[in-house]
Amino acid sequence: MNENGPVRYKVAEAARLAGVSASTLRLWESQGLLVPGRSQTGHRQYSADDVARLKRISWYRVERGLNPAAIREALEGEEPSADGAEAGQGSGLGRKLRSLRHASGKTLDQVAGDIGITASTLSTLERTSQGVSFKTLHDLAEYYGTTVSRLSGEESEEVPAMIRTGEWRTWPETTPGVTVQLLAEGRRMMDCHRFVLAPGAASEGAYRHEGEEFMHVLSGRLELVLDSDQFFDLGPGDSLYFESRRYHSWRNRHDGETVLLWINTPPTF
């Protein structure tokens, strides 16, 4: 457990709290009922919200005798937790995605199937605004006819053009190790961001959209791939400009943080 942040439970601890075995937790994960977080070393980590969900799954299974698909539907019909430990600055993004899905008249299983992810992954994202790759977040935004920037709350009320150093507002941290800070706010013709990437952080897949983009590496090292066959190894002081309609993916190749400026125009990401 981490005394300086949200409580995280190991598999055995979460299983004990939920009153089931560790193997049952792994079975439920394979059935798409819940997707736990992962530590930097790849071990499963369960939040307080996850444990509460596990207890609900157990209740539906034992008391109601529901199968996995029926349990997913039952959990979907419940209101998201308003006081969970994972709620916070990122909860708005999950609520927006949930509202967009409801407005489209689609279930978790339908949207997840269309995007190519599990229903439990999408459910976790809607409840906690966490747990998906950068590429998946982009795919969901495109699916609903919007952009990641809008989902993240960038198009807010008019704000001053000047933002002082260290006072950047931050996107909900949907992807572990990827921090996106706003260098400009309000309605504008450019998305201006400061990316801070932890060691090994990556887009986890290629994506594309309309527009053009520019990046400038401040520190660290970034590998960017265009159209699956053009590789760029960018170090401090290096810049790259490319058309956003080209498939692009990226990862931090540095053993420490990589920090870069990233600008998209028009704001289509």
TrEMBL record:
One of its GO terms (molecular function) is DNA binding. GO terms for cellular component: cytosol. The keyword DNA-binding applies. CDD domains: cupin_XRE_C, HTH_MerR-like, HTH_XRE. It comes from the Bacteria. SMART domains: HTH_MERR, HTH_XRE. Residues 8-77 form the HTH merR-type domain. InterPro entries: Cro/C1-type_HTH, Cupin_2, DNA-bd_dom_put_sf, Lambda_DNA-bd_dom_sf, MerR-type_HTH_dom, RmlC-like_jellyroll, RmlC_Cupin_sf, TransReg_Diox_bact_type. This is MerR family transcriptional regulator. The lineage of its organism: Bacteria, Pseudomonadati, Pseudomonadota, Alphaproteobacteria, Hyphomicrobiales.
